[in-house]
Amino acid sequence: MKQKTRGLTFTSLILEQKYLFLLALVLIFISEGAIHVFQIVKGRLVELAVAGSTSVLGQEVAKFMALVLIIPVTFYLYSKVYLRISAYCLRRLRQAIFDSILKRPYAQFIRHSEGRYLNAYTSQINILESSYFQGIFGFLQIVGTSIPGLFLIYAIYPPLLVVSLIGMALAVTLPELLKKRIVRLEKQAIKADESNLSLFNEILNGLETIVNFAKEKLFISRFRRSTAVYTQNRKKWHRSMAASFHIAQLLLNVYSIVALLFVATVVSDGTLGIGDYIAVLGILFNFTDNLPYTSNYLQRFKAARENLNYINETIAYEDVPPVQDAVNLKRVEDISFDKISFTYPDSDKPILEDFSLKIGERGITQIQGESGRGKSTLLSLLCGYYPVDDGEIYLSGIALEKVDNLNDLVTIMRQYSIFFDGSLADNLSMYRPVRDEELMNGLRRLGLDHLATQEVLHAPIGQYSGGEARRLMVLRALLRGSEIIILDEPLANLDTESIQLLEKVLAEEEDHFLILITHQPVSIPTRFSVSI
Amino acid sequence: MRRYFKKHTLGISGTFFFICIKVVFLNRVSILKGQLIDAAVGKIEMRLREVLVLFSVFLLAYLAGSFLLGIIRYATKMNIVKDLKDDFLTSSLLRNRAAIRELDVSKSVSSYTAEMNLVDLQYLTMGGNLIEYIVNILVTLTSIALIDWRMSIVSLAVYVVPVFFTKTQQNKLTKAQKRFQAENDQHTDSFLQKLKGVEAIKNYHIEGKIFDLFNSSLSKLVKEDIRRSETRARTNGMSSALTYVSQAIIAGLSVFFVFRGEISAGNFVSIFALSSAISGQIYWLARSVEAVISARPAVKSVLDYIDVPQKNSDPVPARPVQDTSLVLQVDDLSLNYDDRTILDGLNLAVRKGEKVLVLGASGSGKSSLMSLIAGYLRPDGGDIYLAEEDRSSLISMVEQDAFIFSGTLEDNLFCEDITDDAEIAELLRTLGLSTLQEEGQDVAERGRNLSGGERKRLSLARGFLRDSEIFILDEPLANVDAENIERIEDLILGIQNRTVILISHQVSDRLYGGVDTVYALDDGKLRCLKSRKDNFYQNDVEKAASRSKVQAGNVCDVGCV
Asked: B244 and A68: CB-CB below 8 Å?
């Protein structure tokens, strides 16, 4: 399967912000490095205080004060820069998800449920923000403290570096403990989250229907089961995380005692002075105390990879290979369905079999037929949402898949109404520049005089009755003026008077291929009338 | 939030108990570590083994306590979150009907995801940690007090400052968080809306424009996110400053005391070790106070959502009908929408078992009238009387665009109470749905794999399977093909001993002839076109004319009873 969108990785996300990231690294190194120096100065102060010498004390106190200033300022700048990186990475993720939704073919869009897109876009991004990006924030602090720490340890007593490196190796390998289990549980939790969100979304959209049938209790108990599954999953996941964290802590504590004893023997030998001893121990303990957290962070990052994978899988879609010798059609002379057969990908019941139809002239074509017989499917095929299994659809004799500008040629109006944010004018023109007079004229012709004023047109969209919404959708489709206009049940929910007005308007559209799906006959002259 | 804490008292006190265990042992472990250092350097050769054993014992105890604390704290938090989520949904379903119509789905989804996430990760998680930090600091302060009480007072003062500092930032934090939340709600809303309109977006080739709209909404969100992170960075910087200033103050004072010979060098080292041991905690203390404060608006918003007036506080109460032969009576009902008058002093009375048809042009207010009767809308004036106070058991309403759930066909029929499979099968056959049932294919999200007509018939089947006194059917024949129209008409006309209210813009002569009463909804009032009792109509020709034009007929004030 060829994927159009390259999967996002944490590295690629952060590399997009590499300068900011470098800046953050520099800042945290300064900040954490200063903390080490702070410890050393503190050690020296102790020495001086114990010795009771006042001569250099002032100088050391001044250093001490300077550090007290440097540490918070650099840490503030680090937080500021890092949080900005995190915000930009999240923006990139959101854009990638939305971009992939808009760019994939429609047939691939409906392969996932709304809950899946919603889960990727809300819950999973939230989880990534809190577990991954905030994790990196703390992790960098540890890295920032460890690396200068290692240098200092090396400077004071080189063999200690080996001791520290062993500890680091331990911390890095420990997350492998229980890793499989944690990754599996994270996957389950993501699934549980998705189905919970799907259910929530569905219940909220169907609220009125549920209330009408007094089925609140049924759905509440269904929902409770779903949250219970999620809660159980997360608890299990956390138990594994906690277990692995504490095992790591135990092992690393044992290690730190061994390291301590090693240092002690060195001090007993007299190789190290008492001041260095305190400084080294300070650094070493700081180092070993952080190791379990290092382990924990690494483990969380591994788990977070699953969340990112989930987002990547949601983003991924098959690339439609560019068609050889594609044609840009200016004008459609005829539409022909040549012995086509079609079965939906996830079904084994053929919807259309050996179906042929030729529409050779502009004007109205009416398609009638019992519901479930494939009227809507036929038009989805004409829109190129799915490839036909057999046969071919031609526009002006050119096979449909070779028509490069199919989207510009075909406009489809579905049975449901969709409005976008913006004004009524935006929604009718679909954000193209269309003169107000043209819009108002259209509204009046469809009997929507009360909407045909400047104020209403440019105010945010309001609430419309079923029949009003239907007529607005028809007007939107007609205004686009594409070669082929498909209207799915344009007359449903309309009263006699509105039907007459609409029929009159439709009859005037002689210069387009107007395809109507209706269950009721229209009383205007049609060029073709087809029954499926 | 208190009631949720109360409900989980056991988990919370368990958490508190293990926090104490963990902190006490951690304190012991830190002290022993110091002794271990002394012992290791060889000052007390004999004691090394002893100290090592003690250290191991306390370390294990600390780790065990810490592990158990982790488990119980997380479990308690998850249980509270689960309760919140359950209540969130329950309150969506159980709110009174007028509130249901007013519910903003996208906003609810946004609140359910984003705000719930804040409550979970910031308020509850960080709040739980906060308790641990406080206990830890108290124990350490006590240890310092045991060595020198003056130092402990100084330390206390130093530790309290960061918390107060965050408190002073409370307004800013809350404000930044609120702004972010509002922006996030809007953004999620616009995402959801676009998700629903993907087909239209593609078809009209406006991906570019929609992407621009999306991006401008996203930029606003990112801007607020960065603004919010600025306040967080500032608290980070300030807490870090306070941490090191506090260390400096303690160090300075200790040095001063040592000079004056009031504290021994050994104690000095201990105080120093203790104070730096918890200096890291100050940062976390401040961070968690910040997290809890900034999550408060989210907590409030979630709780406000949960605490909406419930069903029994119905703002559109139905009064019992006086005349027991009636099931429904509407007096002088009026409704305005914006500046338009939808219903204007409408009257209606429906007898038990009567079949009523309401005809009207599109936009004439038919659906609004039904919504008023069913209690989804508040009237601007007038009264509604019903045979029973509880609308949900009295009325079975099939909306014009009833929602189709994903799952099996049976899931959608809500028929788990009906034991008679034959009855269901018979109904499905009549509605031409038996092939769907036999295929056994699951219904996709929003019934996407069904045709418009199939969805309509499925929603009707759902309605007919319910045994309630009043059936309200909103445009039952829209989107239905000729063959099925007849069957559905038969079904409707065949209903016995139940009251049926049909609304439609256009019906066949057969249905027109079969119902008892026909009204036209025109100019916000009902006009009686036909009444079986009065035999108002005798002339078929006149009837047909009036049906298409909705103009003939006399106005009768209180229905045609």
From this structure: yes
Q: Does B549 contact A496 at a Cβ distance shorter than 8 Å?
A: yes
Nearest CA-CA distance, residue B518 and chain A, Å: 16
Q: Is residue B56 part of a domain?
A: yes
Q: Say yes or no for a CB contact (<8 Å) between A212 and B237.
A: no
A25 CB neighbour count, 10 Å cutoff: 16
B535: closest CA of chain A, how far (Å): 26
- A431 within some domain: no
Quick check: A172 and A296 in contact, CB under 8 A?
no
The reported pLDDT for the residue numbered B556 is 39
Nearest CB to B41: which of A42, A268, A376?
A: A268
Cross-chain CB nearest to A242 (options B71, B79, B416)? B71
Q: Is the Cα dihedral A531, A372, B464, B326 positive or negative?
A: negative
CA distance B76 to chain A (A): 10
Shared-domain flag, residues A256 and A398: no
CB contact under 8 A, A480 and B204: yes
Range of the domain at A186: 10-315
B392 vs A214: CB contact, 8 Å cut-off? yes
Distance between CA atoms of A141 and A34, rounded to whole angstroms? 12
How many domains, chain B? 2
Closest partner residue to A72 (CB to CB) among B101, B240, B457 is B240
CATH number of the domain at B439, please.
Answer: 3.40.50.300
Say which CATH number the domain at A147 has. Answer: 1.20.1560.10
> Does the pLDDT at position B410 exceed 70?
yes
Mean pLDDT (whole number) for A331-350: 85
Question: What is the CATH classification number for the domain harbouring A368?
Answer: 3.40.50.300
Q: Distance between CA atoms of B561 and B553, rounded to whole angstroms? A: 15
Are residues A205 and A143 located together in one domain of the fold? yes
Mean pLDDT of B295-312: 85
Mean pLDDT on B246-271 = 72
- A214, B393: Cβ pair inside 8 Å? yes
Contacts of B248 in chain A (CB under 8 A): 64-65, 68
Other residues' Cβ atoms within 10 Å of the Cβ of residue B487:
15
Q: Return d(Cα A16, Cα A30) in angstroms, integer.
A: 23
Would you put residue B531 in left (φ > 0), alpha (ψ -120 to 50) or beta?
beta
Question: What is the extent of the structural domain holding B29?
Answer: 1-94
Of B41, B74, B94, which residue sits at a domain end? B94
